[in-house]
TrEMBL record:
The chain crosses the membrane at residues 12-31, 174-196. It catalyses: ATP + protein L-histidine = ADP + protein N-phospho-L-histidine. Its EC number is 2.7.13.3. It comes from Drouetiella hepatica Uher 2000/2452. This is histidine kinase. InterPro entries: HATPase_C_sf, HATPase_dom, His_kinase_dom, HisK_dim/P_dom, HisK_dim/P_sf, Sensor_HK_Regulatory, Sig_transdc_His_kin-like_C. It is an enzyme of class 2 (transferase). The keyword Transferase applies. Residues 217-439 form the Histidine kinase domain. GO terms for molecular function: phosphorelay sensor kinase activity. PROSITE patterns: HIS_KIN (PS50109).
Length: 445
């Protein structure tokens, strides 16, 4: 699916960019050809002016007598492709041929409405050794016809021509370069589109993979408490018990149902939180000026009571000064509570959990440390992944689903902070939250 989408992106990118590039290349070739032709015509015009200065004309008995000097153009076998004149022709005011040098004109009369510059095809003899001639060769010529005036009266027309071979050679070379360059460029555009398509599809693919993994994990995790609820309800509905035994068994089954329901309720709460905060959190709620101690003291009281009930030691170390940050109180409390819950779950009876708060490098630092079972080093890079659990069996016993640390990290990152973890297997774990200070530190009055 993703490769097909990537191919479509590359295809449309190459098609659009290739069309633009092809049109640009065609326009460039047209402008370059037009510019070179104008330059070529200007050179022909200048050479015709030189030839016109060598035309001798005089009025005899009411008729203009014109004489073209021999050698005015290099014509016939002397014609050169380097923009030299192939012929020069003189026509009278009525367009009839009077005199010419170079190639003989066919026909011998011109129409007076001919354009000034023309491109024509003529047969030109090519010189061989010892002055002999071979068969006529078709060549393209650029022809120029200009009226010649005397006292503002047209006395005739001078017509010259020069080979287009140099211009055609230049344009052929340019066309060859463009013909070779366009496919190569289109290939490069296609490869670029494929690479850019891959880069564009990468975040989508990662999101899709996370969604698939999330759906699979959520389905698996929801199946377990639902199975427990179903089995216990079925046992509670069986009438094959004595009155005393039935009541006792029903109480136990209902207790298991309650436990499974609470577990599933906690999972659904976490899933709902992740769904609501998948997009960036609202900045206004994260930008409130709060004292970190106001976040921590309610948690200290709550978990001291829990430590007494679960036979664990819970201590805290708080500064005497207020530590102001910009944060949402409830979200930050949830993040720290998830770390404390994790510490209580994986610290055996008689163990200790410590909560401390301090400032370091313009950050408020909150540490949760325990001397519990610890985390194996290979698992440390993955503990913030959703539904990831180091010990699956123990997590099921303690009611964990592997979402608490992921939620804690998401909340801390939304506040512009980061969370670190260090652990030694069998000795304990320390989580450290660092959030930038909001308005500095101030003395509590």
């Amino acid at each position: 699916m993703f490769n097909r989408s990537r191919l479509n992106l590359a295809h449309w990118f190459a098609l659009s960019m290739g069309s633009i590039f092809t049109l640009f290349t065609a326009g460039l070739y047209y402008l370059q050809a037009d510019d070179q032709l104008n330059t070529f015509d200007e050179n022909l015009y200048q050479k015709t002016k030189v030839a016109a200065t060598k035309v001798q004309h005089q009025l005899e008995q009411g008729q203009w007598q014109v004489k073209l000097q021999q050698g005015t153009p290099r014509s016939g076998r002397e014609a050169s492709p380097q923009n030299e004149l192939v012929y020069a022709r003189w026509y009278d005011a009525n367009g009839r041929l009077v005199q010419f040098t170079g190639l003989q004109p066919v026909p011998e009369q011109i129409t007076l409405n001919n354009p000034v510059f023309q491109t024509i095809r003529v047969s030109v003899p090519t010189a061989l050794a010892e002055g002999s001639l071979k068969e006529l060769e078709e060549r393209s010529l650029r022809q120029f016809t200009v009226p010649v005036k005397h006292n503002r009266v047209i006395i005739g027309y001078l017509q010259t021509a020069t080979p287009l071979a140099p211009l055609e050679a230049d344009l052929s070379r340019m066309l060859l370069m463009l013909t070779l360059g366009v496919p190569i460029t289109l290939g490069a555009i296609g490869l670029t589109g494929w690479a850019l398509g891959g880069m564009a599809m990468q975040p989508i693919r990662q999101s899709y993979d996370r969604l698939q993994r999330f759906t699979a994990d959520a389905s698996h995790e929801l199946r377990t408490p639902l199975a427990a609820i179903l089995s216990n309800v079925q046992v509670a509905m069986m009438p094959a018990f004595k009155a005393g035994e039935q009541a006792s068994e029903q109480q136990q089954c209902l207790a298991e149902v309650e436990k499974a329901a609470k577990s599933m309720g906690g999972l659904l709460d976490n899933l709902l939180f992740l769904a609501r905060h998948e997009a960036p959190m609202i900045t206004a709620t994260l930008n409130q000026k709060i004292d970190t101690l106001d976040v921590l003291y309610p948690l200290v009281n709550q978990y001291q009571n829990r430590a007494l009930q679960q036979e664990r030691t819970f201590t805290s170390h708080m500064p005497k000064q207020a530590i102001y940050i910009r944060a949402d109180t409830q979200l930050l409390q949830r993040s720290i509570a998830n770390l404390l819950d994790n510490a209580f779950k994986y610290t055996p009876s008689g163990g200790s959990i410590h909560l401390r708060c301090l400032t370091q490098s313009h950050h408020a630092v909150i540490q949760v440390e325990d001397n519990g079972v610890g985390i194996p080093e290979p698992d440390l890079p993955h503990i913030f992944d959703r539904f990831y659990r180091v010990d699956v069996a123990r997590s099921r016993q303690t009611g964990g689903f592997g979402l608490g640390l992921s939620i804690a990290q998401q909340i801390v990152q939304a506040h512009g902070g980061h969370i670190k973890v260090s652990s030694v297997l069998g000795q304990g774990t320390r989580f450290q939250i660092e959030i930038p200070l909001g308005y500095g530190r101030s003395k509590v009055s």
